[in-house]
């Protein structure tokens, strides 16, 4: 039974960094927008929460008044078998609590006069005039000109359009705060196109692992090998292939669009960047594929690099380069620095 119907220019499904960035930019451009999420904020979201230089630089450009708490990290430790090397990035890494960070982004949008509704997306239907009718699980319907899917790796918007797409499972848990460096462990023998990591946070550290064949039993073994007591394991999927929408007025961004980095699986920069590009495409009446073409191009380069990086040859080269920390540091700094 349909309870009510409303109209708006844009519906953005998902109030994470991608959706909130997009909605905020639309609001600043004077475009009517409804931001929708099934969760009640602030909501917990376990995540490494790493903001690279290019991520927090872009965020500061888009939301100059947004202030947030973070743990400043100036050391990275990488382990491969018995080989360990450390270096200091050119710029700090910022580790945030996603519960607090995402809520802060949402507040920025609301303070700009944005509309937010707690509700679960059920489906969309393209109308004869090209507009999109969004139906919520409650039965409410919203008629809009644009629909933006920003609802994460398990995006219902993407799944309706494209079905299931490739993704890996990441398992994580909180641990007592004790480290001052980001720790990463790679291994061609133990990990299949993935890695173990530790991110030191503001109030706690996060340990996690993800590869093509992640299992709870495998993660428990990894924790036991490192003397880490198991607490509450949580899982999250990370998409590994970007998805292009079939329609110009349905746009997929962030994890919903499959945009996390194909080598590091870092997603916050691309969430913010694709959110910005989606808003620009809507405000200019241009196809998202055109506005976002540089990122699609970067994705193709990343896929080539990922294929090499996670091969036995690639990991052997990295292990060899560990003898030359300046080379590793140079590559890392280039990967996280703002695009020129």
From TrEMBL:
It comes from the Bacteria. It comes from Xylanibacter ruminicola (Prevotella ruminicola). This is Dehydrogenase (Flavoprotein). PANTHER family: CONDITIONED MEDIUM FACTOR RECEPTOR 1 (PTHR42685:SF22), GERANYLGERANYL DIPHOSPHATE REDUCTASE (PTHR42685). The lineage of its organism: Bacteria, Pseudomonadati, Bacteroidota, Bacteroidia, Bacteroidales.
């Amino acid at each position: 039974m349909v309870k009510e119907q409303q109209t708006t220019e844009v519906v953005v499904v998902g109030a994470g960094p991608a959706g909130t960035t997009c909605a905020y930019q639309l609001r600043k451009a004077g475009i009517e927008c409804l931001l929708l999420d099934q969760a009640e904020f602030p909501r917990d979201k376990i995540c490494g929460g790493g903001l690279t230089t290019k991520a927090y630089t872009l965020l500061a450009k888009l939301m100059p008044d947004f202030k947030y708490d973070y743990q400043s990290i100036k050391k990275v430790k990488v382990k491969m078998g018995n080989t360990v090397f450390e270096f200091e990035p050119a710029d700090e890494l910022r580790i945030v609590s996603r519960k607090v960070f995402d809520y802060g982004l949402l507040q920025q949008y609301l303070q700009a006069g944005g509309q937010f509704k707690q509700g679960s997306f059920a489906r969309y239907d393209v109308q004869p005039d090209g507009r999109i009718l969004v139906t919520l699980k409650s039965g409410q319907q919203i008629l809009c000109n644009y629909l933006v899917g920003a609802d994460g790796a398990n995006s219902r918007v993407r799944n309706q359009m494209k079905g299931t797409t490739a993704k890996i499972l990441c398992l994580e848990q909180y641990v007592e705060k004790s480290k001052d460096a980001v720790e990463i462990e790679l291994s061609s023998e133990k990990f299949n196109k993935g890695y173990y990591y530790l991110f030191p946070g503001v109030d706690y550290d996060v340990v996690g692992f993800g590869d093509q064949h992640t299992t709870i039993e495998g993660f428990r073994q990894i924790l036991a090998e490192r003397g880490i007591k198991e607490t509450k394991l949580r899982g999250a999927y990370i998409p590994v292939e970007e998805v292009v929408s079939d329609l110009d007025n349905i746009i997929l961004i962030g994890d919903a669009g499959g945009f996390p980095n194909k080598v590091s699986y870092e997603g916050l920069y691309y969430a913010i960047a694709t959110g910005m590009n989606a808003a620009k495409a809507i405000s200019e009446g241009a196809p998202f594929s055109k506005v976002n073409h540089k990122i699609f191009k970067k994705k193709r380069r990343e896929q080539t690099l990922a294929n090499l990086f996670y091969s036995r040859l690639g990991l052997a080269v990295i292990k060899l380069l560990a003898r030359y920390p300046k080379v590793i540091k140079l590559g890392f700094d280039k990967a996280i620095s703002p695009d020129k």
